[in-house]
UniProtKB/TrEMBL annotation, chains A, B:
Keyword Transcription regulation assigned: yes
Species whose genome carries this gene: [Actinomadura] parvosata subsp. kistnae
InterPro entries: HTH_LacI (IPR000843), LacI/GalR-like_sensor (IPR046335), Lambda_DNA-bd_dom_sf (IPR010982), Peripla_BP_I (IPR028082)
Pfam families membership: LacI, Peripla_BP_3
Name used for this protein in its record: LacI family transcriptional regulator
UniProt entry keywords in alphabetical sequence: DNA-binding, Transcription, Transcription regulation
UniProt superkingdom: Bacteria
Gene Ontology molecular functions: DNA-binding transcription factor activity; transcription cis-regulatory region binding
Domain HTH lacI-type span(s) in chain numbering: 2-57
The UniProt record lists the keyword RNA-binding: no
Amino acid sequence: MVTLEDVAKQAGVSLATASRVLNGSTRQVGASLRARVERAADELGYRANIAAQTLARGASNVIGIVVHDLTDPYFAALADGAMRAAATEGLLVMVGTTHRDPEQEIAYVATLHAQRVRAVLLVGSRVADQRVTGRLRDELARYQAGGGRAACVGQDLLGVDTVAPANREGAAELARALAELGHTKFAVLAGPPHLVTAADRCAGFSQALDELGLPAPQVIHGPFDRDGGYAAAQQVKGATCVFAVNDVMAVGALAAYRERGVRVPDDVSVAGFDDIVTLRDHVPALTTVRLPLKDMGARALELALNEDEPVVVEKVAGEVVLRESVRRMP
Amino acid sequence: MVTLEDVAKQAGVSLATASRVLNGSTRQVGASLRARVERAADELGYRANIAAQTLARGASNVIGIVVHDLTDPYFAALADGAMRAAATEGLLVMVGTTHRDPEQEIAYVATLHAQRVRAVLLVGSRVADQRVTGRLRDELARYQAGGGRAACVGQDLLGVDTVAPANREGAAELARALAELGHTKFAVLAGPPHLVTAADRCAGFSQALDELGLPAPQVIHGPFDRDGGYAAAQQVKGATCVFAVNDVMAVGALAAYRERGVRVPDDVSVAGFDDIVTLRDHVPALTTVRLPLKDMGARALELALNEDEPVVVEKVAGEVVLRESVRRMP
DNA sequence: GACCTCCCGGAAAGCGGTTTCCAAGTCTGC
DNA sequence: GCAGACTTGGAAACCGCTTTCCGGGAGGTC
């Protein structure tokens, strides 16, 4: 590959001068030399070696984002928000997907640390397992000790900047809205018990029902994805309203009902959580809690880059959106 | 940050020995020294500086993927396929999104070149503009001249390894299947004329109709996304069957019809292209052409990494999937 | 015109690793 | 017991770039 030295030689100047011309510096370079260097670089097709720059400057211009699954539109939206924010700062993005394996998440933090990325963003729910979370914390702390910056979208469990959606509150508000429509018998497709996001939404929902004096919902655990919702829906017994703790599960539930000839919302009402954009044309339109996913991603990056002391943006509000998948009870 | 020198000092060995123990080498290191080094590294929380390694080794372990829009499930699936393939090779991934700006694509290739990534993957349709494509070619050639590797998912227009879906053939087969159902009056929601993927699908469809002796379809251009499909559907006149050149446009069209009280498939049949997984629960279920997106992404990465001479995998076959959004004509 | 700044070009010292080359052991085989 | 072949540890060159430090010349002041 073409190096700076090649360019300097071709232009008949020193390395220092070539560097100052091509890669930004506070120092001025005279017009004639500057032109010669630029021409040489162009002729040779020079591209600065960023690994070398990073090493010399002691700072890189890339950030790392770790998500669970890029094909899940929830993560895609969050990641997209963060990537747009990164682009405006002139930063590049390395993306890692854990496929929901917490060990992978830890491994990625180590790898991104080794890459000396400017910041790492952990996107997605924490798990309840204290030991795993502890190891992740350690890995992050080690990275931060070396000057790294980190933020998380999810729960404030890592001791880093955090953007935390109001999962409990959003679910509670949804519960109240559904109760308002006259529902009293609920089921919750609750996802995996160890996933904090899922657990929070389930708990917020249940608690709100309790405060309203309504009976506790039937809680059905299962995977956090479309098929999990599909399977869990089969086990619902006697509820008039089903809350799936995220939208893709709700879509799975709707599919299960459709196949069995159960009409939504006539026979049963269904609600989800997140308000995934890709699902906006779903039939019936899904009642859900809208989260500003892109903003949250962007905000988290901002925090990671700018805050010295860990800042926690608690309870990013969701907005209940009532659509045709729920009906008013007679 | 902790450096290798710190570790070596702490362990009382030379830099060379520490390097050999920690960062893999053909050379053996005695058991006792090895243990001392490992203990020191662990105590200090050492993480190799990959920028330095990349510089010293002259080879990096990251690849770059450039997509148009991560929140579009089409790209998410392709990227996910490539990322899984990368992970099995122990490679890290940098992702760039162009937001459909071809200039951005060129800029990303330059940036990834500067990063000295092992390979770059360009995912998504080429544009018809010769000048833009030419500049992208130049940028890629320059990168490859320096030992970089590149591949593309889309059309074979860049002189690099390419995985090209059989857009024309898939659309043609779809046209024949729809004609088989008795349709004769077609419209095509054709997307932007300059997008090669869109144009190919439209052309393949039209040509097949022509070969069947059927009248040419009404062709309506517009954006390549959901809203483009929505808007284009409004302009359809007198067709019994509408082909949207991708699934998200088809979903937009379905939404437009639903709002206007036009029944699908009773009043009009609708088909898309791609078979996006997220849409599998859409109502009515979308007739489409299934493309093996994840495989294509993985395959492209494989080509980039292993092939010396540009290899073109032409015409990755799509499979027509007939679902309820189309009906047989009486 | 002497003296001081200021400006700009270049030499060279890093940045944190890898790897080549040596030297000093340690094993073999006879 | 000793030459020759392997091992293994360390010194130092090098990867490509940034930046500090120097020095020479131009411009300004009295």
